[in-house]
Each structure stands twice: as C-alpha cells, then as structure tokens.
C-alpha cells in the first residue's frame, strides 16, 4: 500500500505522503488533463467516506465500495514508496506506459481518491499489499 508517491504536475515533480492530511493525487481525466483529488480520509478528517487511502481490489469485486459510486481512474504516478515489514522504506519506479489504478469515491458531495491495492502474487515479498499497476493496451 503506497504510503508516498511522486508525480509530475504542472511541470514540477511532486512528492506526497498519505500521512499529510492535505495529500492529493493526480487523476487522468478523459481529455488527458490532470486533476488533483484528496487522497483518502484520515481519522481526524470529517466525512463519510472510508478511512485510509487504499481500496483492496477483492473488496471492490465483492461490492463493498458500491455505496460510494466507485469510478476507476488512472493515476500517472512516477514512483511510489512502500515500507517493508521491518519499517524500512523502498521507492519503486512505475514503468513508462503503465499507471497505478485509482478509485474515485463519493458520498454526499465529498469526493476522494483511493489507490487500488492487490495481494502480491510473489512469495517472500516484503509487502503484504501492492498497488494495482496497469498497462496501456495499444
């Protein structure tokens, strides 16, 4: 579950961490423009949307996000940061032509973005969740 990300926005490289209550992620709109949306919800923040900044893919498939009118989106993230089981941080590049899948959720006028996560398929990996990385089908 990425705890930090790097992305390019308006010609500048931005680095944001989920712990920052003002953290925003870039969402790729249909016309190619980028829009920044608030990344998840923290305990200290008012609202009805789920706490955290991540949406587990299996929970999405089971319909647990359906009440929030979920919309899948592309997050043009360059790098993401994960902590391993020992608390060490690791930065990972997103391969060009790939993106991280996001989920836009809304409830009573509140709109937030969540990073879609999966359980890694590899054994002996340092992380228990991983962002869902997608590729263009050109």
Give an account of the 3D structure.
It is globular and about 35 Å long. The chain has one domain. The chain has one helix and twelve strands; from the N terminus they run βββββαβββββββ. The chain has one helix spanning 57-61, and strands spanning 4-9, 12-17, 24-28, 34-38, 54-56, 71-75, 77-83, 89-93, 98-107, 110-118, 130-131, 133-135. It is mainly beta. Strand 9 and strand 10 form a beta hairpin. Strands 5, 6, 9, 10, 11 and 12 form a six-stranded mixed beta sheet that branches. Strands 2-1-7-8 form a four-stranded antiparallel beta sheet, with no helix packed on it.
Measure the end-to-end span: 28 Å
Radius of gyration: 14 Å
Structural class: mainly beta
Summed up, the helix count is 1
What is the quaternary state of this protein? single chain
What is the count of distinct domains?
1
Average pLDDT rating:
90
